Amino acid sequence: MSTLPALGGGSAADQERRAALRRMKAIATGLLIVLAIVFVIAFALQERYPWLAYVRAAAEGGMVGALADWFAVTALFRRPLGLPIPHTALIPRKKDQIGESLGDFVEENFLSDEVLVSKLASLQVAAKAGAWLAVPTNASFAAGEGAVLLRGVLDVVSDEDVQRVAEQLVRKHMLEPEWSGTLGLLLQRLVEDGHHRGAVDVLADRALAWANEHPERITEIVSDRSPSWLPSAVQRLIGERLHRELTGFLGAVRADPQHAARRSLDEWLAGLAQDMQSKPETIEAVERVKRSFIEDPRLRQVALDSWNRLKDSLSEAAEDPASELRIAFESGLRDLGTRLASGDPLADKVDGWLRDAAGYVVKNYRHRATELITDTVASWNGQEASERIELMVGRDLQFIRLNGTVVGSLAGLAIFAIAHAVLGG
Q1: CB–CB of 117/132 below 8 Å?
Q2: Which residues make Cβ contacts (< 8 Å) with residue 324, sequence separation at least 6?
Q3: Which residues on adjacent β-strands are paired with residue 2?
Q4: Quick check: keyword Transmembrane in the entry (predicted)?
Q5: 408: closest CA among 43, 71, 20, 21?
Q6: If you placed Cys at 39, which of 59, 168, 218, 320 could pair as Cys (CB 3.0 to 4.6 Å)?
Q7: What's the predicted TM-score (pTM) here?
Q8: Beta-ladder partners of 155
Q9: Do 106 and 370 form a contact (C-beta atoms < 8 A)?
Q10: Which of helix, strand or coil describes residue 364?
């Protein structure tokens, strides 16, 4: 069971409350003692001075009222005079039920959907927040706090955690799903719509340009692969012929959209697309390539280096008030504030989001809030909780004792006066 902060010390406010409580208790008790003295004197002298009977009646009624209200107030927090009187020390004995009742009261009167939605609707949070953000100094302050938050997040998040989460996401969303069927369907659509023809044109252009710029390479290739006994002049003639045939072929492919080579390439790509969607051998080959690419340690290192550079850049930009990131963020906040404060429809949307979010939180978690109140009160030490509550409200309760004393005195005087007038004495 938890305990509340000790009552012996406490804050300056607690000390002030404690002094005020003692003062009011002293006043109420002192008034009771004064009435008791008046009662004794008036009772002793009323035969000699008949008018003192009225004083005695008033004092008697005041003592009764003071004692009754002292008992009532004291019975809330402890047993009067330490006696085991039933239905006393209510707060220490009934604190759990009080906590449950308090939780139910808060849930029914403060956490209901109607109350919260009505309150949020009347507050116009978006417009007020927008008016605040539209002030340049406030936008600058908000941007600075956002930068502090960003730096804190970057400091807390470790590189190992980021790498582990990234690997989990890659494994779940990239490695586990099969790519072959999707890539095959994509390739099929590209071929059917003819989107690959532009790439074929580029390849043909580059190949033709290379062949025209490097004719000697053809001759070198022929020489490297020809028998040693073949004369060099013959090798050169063969190389030149091959170069003419190659450039002519590439030029024809580039110029004729219906060239046989293009049609053959279209058929091969269409067949590959079908195989990637249905042929087990092709599917497995694509998956092997995918796994080798994603699991390559060099790719992991590139990802980690990219994250480190991004983190360093964000940290530096967040710390520098003159950085483009801070300036853009601050400007964005001002613009957002101006929109929200000027009656832009966005303000209504934001208020609607807030109401929806608050309604969701209240609907799903209000019982947790009341459980927090109930469980917290249940965990308190009964005696300490009673003393703490008395410290907070006891001073005001002492006015009940004072009022009871005054009302009792007036009632006693009125009853005696009426009885004396009606019945005589």
Answers
A1: no
A2: 317
A3: 380
A4: yes
A5: 71
A6: 59
A7: 0.47
A8: none
A9: yes
A10: helix
